[in-house]
Amino acid sequence: MQDHEPEEITRYLTILKSVDSDEYYEKEEDEIWPAVQDAVTALTRLGPAATPALCRLLDADFTWSCYYALRVLHQTKDPQAVPALIGLLRRESDDTLACEEAMFTLQDIGDAAIQPLLQELTTQFRNEQYNSYLVGALTGIPGPIPYDFMVATVTDFLRYPPKYHGWFNIGDFIFNFTKQQQTKAAPLLRQLLLLKGLDGPTRQEITETIEAVETATP
Length: 218
Known about the structure:
This protein has helices at 7-17, 22-25, 29-46, 51-56, 64-76, 82-90, 96-109, 111-126, 132-139, 144-159, 170-174, 177-180, 186-192, 200-214. It has 218 residues and is mainly α. It folds into 2 domains: 1-111; 142-218, no CATH class. Helix 3 (29-46) crosses helix 5. The protein is elongated and about 60 Å long. 34% of the residues are buried.
């Protein structure tokens, strides 16, 4: 038990960790849910008080306790969880279920996640690293800061394509322009279609994004 952690929280975390066994890894999620439902409900009710303990469960990949901790954090949307959520995604785990849940949780936390995500992506891009879940977390939060970051990045991509060669995924990056609800982004995106060297799927992604942006309702 961590110092000063309420016994109630420790008890519920023990329940979540009890499904981290071979017996449960052979089962589907709907088969596991009855074993953890009461604990998930109680931890959600406890809200921010349970966040530090839940964040400790995010240190392990491919565990049901990590996944259900994320389920709770997605419901509580506590900004305290932002560093741990970013840390999980930074590991670039192959645990798709956990990575998607962490990304959507950051999106739903919203404004409080923007600056930490912006700082993380700025560092990663400087080091020619591309993490689609971290990109999705930031660009999936509607607002002027994520939108301006997206515009600045696409503008730089158009000016210096070789700078992004081999590590950047422009089709993936522009996907969430649809969430930004900014029809004025369409002309910028159309410039991407003038670039040589884009493969068919990327062109299709850009085209579909432009169509969605042009029909967006602010």
